Amino acid sequence: xxxxLSPVPGNRILDAGCGTAGFTQLLAEPLGDDDHVDAADxxxxxxxxxxxxxxxxxxxxxxxxxEAPIQDLPFEDETFDLVWTSLALHHLAxxxxxxxxxxRVVTPGGRLAIREGGIxxxxxxxxxxxxxxxxxxxxxxxxxxxxxxxxxxEGDAVPYPYGWTQLLRDAGMADVTARTFIHEFLxxxxxxxxxxLIGGLTRWATDESREGYLSEKDRSALKRLIDPDDTEYVFDxxxxxxxxxxxxxxxxxxx
Length: 255
Hints:
By secondary structure, the chain is of the alpha/beta class. The protein has 2 domains: 143 residues, Rossmann fold (3-Layer(aba) Sandwich), CATH 3.40.50.150; 89 residues, no CATH class. The protein is built from 8 helices and 10 strands. The strands form 2 sheets. Strands 1, 2, 3, 4, 5, 6, 9 and 10 form an 8-stranded mixed beta sheet that branches. A two-stranded antiparallel ribbon has the order 7-8. The longest helix is centred in the middle third of the chain and has 18 residues. The radius of gyration is 20 Å and the shape is globular. The two termini are 25 Å apart.
């Protein structure tokens, strides 16, 4: 995904809402030793984690971390050739205002890349004896309802009733495009992949705050699917297939 954006030595890059800085690292790798990526986040805990993580990594010399929100960036106008933000904008109460702040720091001719939306992940067969048909779809629908109740309708939210492409245009960007990258893998899963997959199921099986979004029958089935001692343990199946679509929206600032 990052290679598609073609960061090159000499570029000035911002990762806004950097989280654990996984994408920050990818953005920094193609740069020269005299270049750096600025990475901003509001979590002091995450920033300290990132600084510690990169302390002995040569790539860390190319990264500068800042405690700052997307809505109020500590940078001059027209500073960055590329601004990247991943799964952060949907948390903002006023998305359009936030994207306009990102556009403010993009150089004329520079780009703003937004990772949001995409195609939801799934990895279990459509039909299983324990769950019947459609568990993947029911999990996806539950996620949509949970997401809406926790993100879209906060009391101070400013409604924005259009998609990400129009959001970029309304914020002042031109030549807006999008590309979806398919991520998939098959058994045998690595330990990291298995932990990622079972973590998603565990939330729906055991988190009391999500109890009302799935039927008790589905939650009971999930508890069996995540139990290594159960005959229905999901990772004993040979027919699993993980697939997810990750979408990036890109706009260019008019010169």
